[in-house]
């Protein structure tokens, strides 16, 4: 998958374990596919993955992230830098 290769290239260039933030949603099949691709990369490269469900009203700043990504999930941020 193209995503896996792009993610591998980005992670390889990192000088430390890559910090990934995956913005997801409830019952999001594409989010599940993205998680599988990230797990493939994690088998051979050090990463730290956090997830944020934009449909979970108990999370901080959920309205901001929901407005920003409600039509785009899954969205992956690499080392805190925008969309990957």
Automatic annotation (TrEMBL):
Lineage top rank: taxon: Eukaryota
Keywords: Electron transport, Transport
Keyword Electron transport (UniProt): yes
Stretches assigned to coiled coil: none
InterPro entries, per database record: Glutaredoxin-like, Glutaredoxin-like_YDR286C, Thioredoxin-like_sf
Pfam families reported for this sequence: Glrx-like (PF05768)
Family classification: Belongs to the glutaredoxin family.
Protein name: Glutaredoxin-like protein
Species this protein is from: Testicularia cyperi
